[in-house]
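REQUEST FORM: STRUCTURE PREDICTION
Request ID: SP-0412
Submitted by: Lab K.M.
Chain count: 1
Length (residues): 236
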Amino acid sequence: MPDGDGDTTPSVATGDTTGDTTSDHRPSGASSPESVATQPPNEQEVLSPSPPPQSQDHEYEALQTDWRKELRERVREIKARHQAAPSELAPPRSWSAELSMLPPSTNHLYREVHDKKSGKRFRVKTGPYKKFLKATVGDFLPFPGLTRPVRISVKIYGGRGWRESADVSNRLKACEDALVKAGRLEDDDCRRVRAVTAEYIPRDRHYVQVHGFAAPTKSALQKIEARCVVEVEEVE
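STATUS: Completed
RESULT:
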């Protein structure tokens, strides 16, 4: 309020400013701490981080090498799984083939030969065994090859050309070799062949399976020909 003498001197606040240190002495154009804290990161800094300190270069390179190695191994694992997926997901396959001739006995697959010059003895395939392998290649070719472990069943149907006193289990080896020879199996070792069975069907039952009724006469029963059927089935 002006006094009666007309003094218009403005009043000044008399607060204590002795400890005031909040005066801003930053140069012009500098950002305040608040603006720096709220400023979003630069995109270039995010995509290209600053290199590590010089003292940690060897650790950084080791981590990068391990990471790349792990990534390559992961990619190889995924590729291998996708390549194996069709055969793993496909249902097990099975088929049966009737052979054009009866398999020879294991006792007659090889014969021993003596070389007089070297004095050595070695085994060679017999003539009936070679003939059987050559004939049965065509019997197996219409069927697909099998990649999974398999179960093999050999069935001998009695008839002409088969002796009742013969050993049916001795015919298994020739049938396994014929499957490998035809390319239907990679090998006949335990990794690929899990089970092998042999079965003999007598002549009278064979006649019923072929004609649907029992043989009317003994002479009719004697006319039926012996057969060999190989059944192959993939197992889980």
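NOTES: Residues 1-6, 8-24 have pLDDT under 50 and may be disordered.
Reviewed by: T.R.
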